[in-house]
Structure formats: C-alpha cells, structure tokens
Amino acid sequence: MRKIKILGIVGSLRKDSLNLKLALATKEMLKDRAEFELLDYSDVPLFNEDIEFPVPEPVKRAREAVKAADGVWFFTPEYNHSYPGVLKNLTDWLSRPAEDDERPVTWKKPAVVSGISPSFAGTAVAQDLLIMLLNFLNMEVMNMPRVTVPNAFQLLDGDRLNLGGSLKFIEEQASNFIEFVQKRIG
User: Fold this and answer.
1) Cys bridge to 148: 6, 85, 122, 136, which one at CB 3.0-4.6 A?
2) What pLDDT score does 41 carry?
3) Largest Cα span, the chain
4) 133 contacts 89 by C-beta, under 8 angstroms
5) Bridge partners for 106 per DSSP
6) Nearest to 98 by CA among 140, 135, 53, 133
7) Which domains does the chain have, with CATH numbers?
8) How much is the average pLDDT of 135-159?
9) Is 82 helix (H, G, I), strand (E, B) or coil?
10) Strand, coil or helix: what is 56?
11) What is the tens place of the pLDDT at every residue in 70-109?
C-alpha cells in the first residue's frame, strides 16, 4: 500500500508557534509512515468576494495542496476560546468552489485536529469549534482520539518540543488517522 499524503495546516502564522512545533514533531514521527507537507498560507488575502475571481494565486496554491492531499491535519491554538482568524479566513477560501460547477476542495476530505497550548486547559474549545466548522464544510472529521497538549512551555527544550507523556497520544492519533484515511481512499 502506498504512503498516504497528509497536509498539515497550522492555525498560527507565528514563526515560533507552539502548534508549528507540534506539527513539525508530528511530521518527524510520521516520516516512515506517511508523506507530510506543511501548508504555508501566510500570503492568502482576507476573503473578499470582490477579489474571488480570478482566484488569487496564493488561494489557488492552497486549494491545490488540499486537493492533492489524502487527508488534512489541523494544528490549532486557542485564541479567546476559539480558533484563530487566519484559520477561519483560510477555510473560507477553501470552502468556495474554484469554478461554478466544482465542489470545494474540502468536500469529503478526511481531517483531524490537534492543538497545543501554554494553559493547562489546552485547546479543547477551539478544537470543538473548528470541528463544527470542518463538518459544515463536509470534511470527514476523525473525532476520536483527539489530542490537546497542555502546559506547552514545560515541554520546550530550547527551540524543540519534547512531547514527553503526550507523545503516545499523538502517536495513537496518527496511527488512527492513517487508518481512517486509508479506508476512505481505498
């Protein structure tokens, strides 16, 4: 069976983002089991129907990356009890068909959500809200197991993230997501 292709989408554009560190740790963990690419969408403009057609190049690139992936793994921080605005903006663009007769690239695309936070509560509320949005976009969301890594600053080893006891939960989520995707792509 071929390696599945997973697209990682980080809900923070900050270069030193904790969720970027989590995504990179996941990528390293998956290197022998799946192709894992991170989407850089820092140049995607704010959604505006006035500029929807022709589709801006950064949006076209993001849509193609989602379309080419077998599954999408979202890594979201929690901002004010929700997911970040940049992530909502990206999903607004992804939710729109590229042409009048085409379905959005999110249609039936397998997805999973994780998150890391400096707080002890983690990113559970942001994940709940993001999953609600992804379901609305008709993505096939793997709801269990879910992973929210708390107390992130205690897990930093210089610039690297040492997941410690949380590693087994990310590994379990990864194994389940690979199986989830494989069942959907045949």
Assistant:
1) 122
2) 98
3) 49
4) no
5) none
6) 53
7) 4-185 (3.40.50.360)
8) 92
9) strand
10) coil
11) 999 999 999 999 999 999 999 999 999 876 668 999 999 9
How large is the average pLDDT for residues 119-127?
A: 90
Q: What phi, psi does 43 have (nearest 5°)? A: -100, 5
**Cα(107)–Cα(39) distance, rounded to whole angstroms?**
18
Mean pLDDT value across the chain: 94
| Structure tokens, 139 | 């993505």
| Nearest CA-CA partner of 61 in 13, 94, 101, 36 | 94
Determine phi and psi for 148, rounding to 5 degrees.
Answer: -130, 120
- The residue whose two tokens read 């199986």 is 179
Assign 2 a pLDDT band (cuts: 50, 70, 90).
Answer: confident
